[in-house]
Specification:
Layout lengths: L21 H17 L14 E7 L5 H14 L4 E6 L17 H14 L4 E6 L7 H14 L3 E7 L6 H11 L4 E5 L9 H9 L3 E5 L7 E3 L2 H8 L5 H10 L6 H8 L5 H14 L2 H5 L12 H19 L3 H5 L3 H7 L1 H11 L3 H22 L16 H14 L2 H6 L2 H16 L13
């Protein structure tokens, strides 16, 4: 980012009062300026229900255009829109394999496809085009011809988050040729933080509408400026984490809330919580939402290892019977009958020490839940966030700190960092997460 793009007069350190935290003030100023860079001040295009909405995708080869086309179609289909896809990418390797489709002119394919789907009253018509580089004049001319033929309502530039600042020249080349109205940033599930998105928005003067966060068809999220910048600066995204937790609708599980209220936690409850963790998405992505961690905190190898370990623990519990899963003290039941451990190990294809390790982990969780259940009024009304006073929160923080890996606690900034994160989570869960996440206590 060029120095001229940041207002030097935002902060005058010499005139600041001595009691103010200068480091936080600088961070706060940088945050606000980056938010302005990512937000071009242009309202993002939105489709109109009940009419034909033609969306044309453009971008570099390998940026994830075709995958994102499918994701966007699925996104709108889930919301009740009638969606379709047109593949005008005849440059793709292997595209000639489908002999029944003899037409190889992408302009004709796109035009005929749009006309057909308009006649069939499709609401979302997505046109996928060939990947191209700014130096490929012939392909750029082809892109312009496709645009003129289909007259799209929205042209989306797809940007690979991993190419960094090199995207500025590319984005500008696309913008100069066709009217790019929106940007989608892909591959944010990797180690790339997406800093190039700043350049893409600056070059196209177009808003980011979605971000790709994984390989699966539902790994497409509407873009939110402040949480994105917060994660970019390594400050986490408590708001996004709360949204993911709320998607699981844990508050609807009255039976679990009642158990927690009485300090009860069974192996089946633990199994269900593991399922919820799996639904939340990749560990690296979740860690990136926690202040003090980045998406690169957990390497791809470690992330896969952690997911495999979680699946292994669930496989072990799959070999347990109802009595063992629903017992109020499952670990005690196993200690009374050692043969149970051997049977579960055989059934799940693991060593007995793996079963014992699971039971040890379960005991730690159960003990913490028991202590939480002893805090009067904690789960009143099923909403913990409204009923926790400072002393109760301090007790919970201490219990969490004891259960955490010391390295993880260190990354969070020790006990003070954990307390700060929990305060933010409390405020966000109560609907008070306003403004910049991570600076609520400035």
């Amino acid at each position: 980012m060029p120095p001229s793009s940041m207002r030097r007069s935002s902060i005058d350190l010499e005139e600041m009062a001595s009691g103010l935290n200068k480091r936080r003030m600088i961070q706060h100023s940088v945050f606000k300026e980056l938010v302005k860079l990512v937000d071009p001040g242009v309202k993002a295009w939105t489709p109109t229900k009940g009419k034909n909405n033609v969306i044309m995708f453009v971008g570099l080869q390998g940026s994830g255009k075709t995958t994102t086309c499918s994701k966007l179609a699925y996104y709108y289909q889930r919301k009740g829109w009638k969606t379709c896809l047109i593949c005008a990418d005849t440059f793709r390797a292997g595209s000639f394999i489908f002999k029944i489709y003899t037409e190889m002119d992408p302009v004709v394919i796109a035009a005929e496809g749009v006309e057909k789907f308009k006649n069939e009253s499709f609401e979302i018509i997505i046109v996928d085009t060939s990947g191209r580089h700014k130096q490929e004049d012939s392909l750029f001319e082809e892109m312009l011809q496709v645009s003129n033929a289909v007259q799209p309502d929205n042209i989306v530039y797809v940007m690979d988050a991993s190419i960094g600042q090199a995207c500025e020249a590319q984005a500008k080349a696309f913008k100069d040729k066709v009217e790019v109205a929106s940007v989608i940033v892909t591959k944010l599930d990797g180690h790339a933080k997406g800093g190039g998105a700043l350049s893409a928005v600056a070059a196209t003067k177009s808003p980011i509408i979605f971000i790709g966060t994984g390989e699966h068809i539902d790994d497409l999220e509407p873009f939110k400026t402040q949480p994105f910048i917060s994660k970019l600066l390594g400050m986490g995204d408590i708001e996004g984490l709360i949204d993911k937790v709320n998607e699981l609708k844990l508050d609807d599980n009255e039976e679990l809330i009642d158990k927690l209220k009485h300090g009860q936690f069974t192996l089946r409850d633990m199994y269900e919580q593991f399922q919820n963790i799996m639904k939340m998405g990749p560990f690296g992505q979740i860690m990136g939402m926690i202040p003090g961690f980045g998406t690169d905190f957990m390497s791809k190898g470690n992330e896969q290892e952690s997911m495999a370990r979680l699946k292994k623990l669930m496989t072990i519990m799959d070999s347990m019977n109802d009595q063992e899963l629903d017992n109020k003290d499952g670990a005690k039941l196993f200690s009374k009958g050692p043969n149970r451990i051997a049977r579960v190990a055989r059934g799940s294809g693991v060593a007995t020490r793996d079963v014992q390790e699971l039971l040890t982990q379960y005991t730690k969780f159960a003990q913490m839940v028991k202590k939480m259940g002893g805090i009067k009024g904690l789960f009143k009304g099923g909403d913990m966030s409204k009923n926790v006073n400072p002393s109760q929160m301090a007790k919970l923080n201490q219990q969490m700190a004891k259960m955490m890996d010391p390295r993880v606690l260190h990354h969070m900034g020790g006990m003070s960092g954990l307390q700060s994160m929990m305060r933010q989570f409390q405020q966000g869960a109560a609907g008070n997460a306003k403004g910049m996440m991570g600076f609520n206590n400035m």
